[in-house]
Design goal:
Length: 118
């Protein structure tokens, strides 16, 4: 089953929406970091390092999602979206619904993840 142009367009709008949300989050996170840097005093240093580590890891996860979204949008534009990069088969619509960034069909994904797939 192939995704229609309208399906792809709707999906792209969703991705663009999510991309904007993430951009706002990333911007507010990095401006918070700047405020921290300016108001830093010696007594608070341990706390601020811990918070910074936390924030950085959050940012990493979101940044990962962000780059996945960029890749998905690019794939939609190129017309390769929803096609398994391993075997070239169409990825099922149901799988894409739950995982819009899927780059492999379920079979190839399970193989790639070994028996750890849950
Ligand atoms: Zn495949």
């Amino acid at each position: 089953m192939k995704l229609s142009k309208a399906d792809l367009e709707r999906l792209k709008q969703d991705l663009l929406q999510r991309k904007l949300e993430l951009e706002h989050e990333l911007v507010s996170l990095s401006s918070e970091q700047m405020v921290d840097g300016q108001s830093q005093d010696d007594g608070d240093q341990v706390v601020s390092i811990t918070m910074e580590t936390l924030r950085n890891s959050l940012q990493d996860t979101e940044y990962q999602e962000y780059s996945n979204i960029l890749a998905a949008i690019e794939a939609i534009d190129k017309g390769t979206y929803g096609i398994c990069r391993e075997c070239g088969e169409q990825i099922s619509e149901n799988r894409l619904k739950y995982n819009p960034n899927a780059r492999r069909c379920l079979g190839c994904q399970e193989r790639a993840e070994g028996k750890e797939f849950r």
